[in-house]
Amino acid sequence: MKNLFLMAVAVLFSTAIMAQPEEGPEIEFEKKVHDFGDMEQHGDASCEFVFTNTGNEPLIISNARGSCGCTVPQWPRKPIAPGESETIKVKYDSKRLGPINKSVTITSNAKENPTVVLRIKGKIEEAKTSPENKSEGAPVAQ
Q1: Please, are residues 32 and 118 in contact by the beta-carbon 8 Å criterion?
Q2: Mean per-residue pLDDT for 5-31?
Q3: Are 98 and 138 in contact (CB under 8 A)?
Q4: Residue 43 or 127, more confident
Q5: What is the C-alpha separation between 92 and 111, in angstroms, rounded?
Q6: Which end of the chain has fewer CB within 10 Å, C or N?
Q7: Domains and CATH numbers, the chain
Q8: Is the Cβ–Cβ distance between 34 and 119 less than 8 Å?
């Protein structure tokens, strides 16, 4: 009987410990991939990734690193309070032609996912010259 009582107390104690909420910050993104689709060369290749600190301590993003020099992230340098949302802005150099498939690696003090990879994709096509942009009356070489 004494062993049964001790076992019941142990089970209740371990259940109470497991039910305690995890301490620490957490980062949760609304989306982790942005698709620019087809866009013209030199177009606006900027996007934002919205995230929320779903933890119970301040979230600190220590770094955001693009996979190459053509992908430049901007991130908040201040601690993000629990429940607060912020954005990471990413700008891609759209002078390059062809497919886009780049990543931005986010490093933070999040307890469960301290490293998150965000992706941008799409395709940059040569800008089409419209008839309005052609100069009228220009001399013709003979």
Answers
A1: yes
A2: 69
A3: no
A4: 43
A5: 30
A6: C
A7: 22-127 (2.60.40.10)
A8: yes
pLDDT surpasses 60 at 94:
yes
Mean pLDDT for all residues in the chain:
85
Cα angle 120-121-123, degrees, rounded to a multiple of 5: 140
Q: What pTM, to 2 d.p., does this model score?
A: 0.75
Per-residue tokens: 85: 């949302």
d(CA 16, CA 63): 37
Which tokens hold the place of 36? 């620019």
Q: Are 43 and 122 in contact (CB under 8 A)?
A: no
In the 3-class helix/strand/coil scheme, how is the chain assigned residue by residue?
Answer: CHHHHHHHHHHHHHHHHHCCCCCCCCEEECCCEEEEEEEECCCCCEEEEEEEECCCCCECEEEEEECCCCEEEECCCCCECCCCEEEEEEEECCCCCEEEEEEEEEEECCCCCCEEEEEEEEEEECCCCCHHHCCCCCCCCC
When mean pLDDT is compared across 12-21, 27-36, 72-81, the lowest value belongs to 12-21
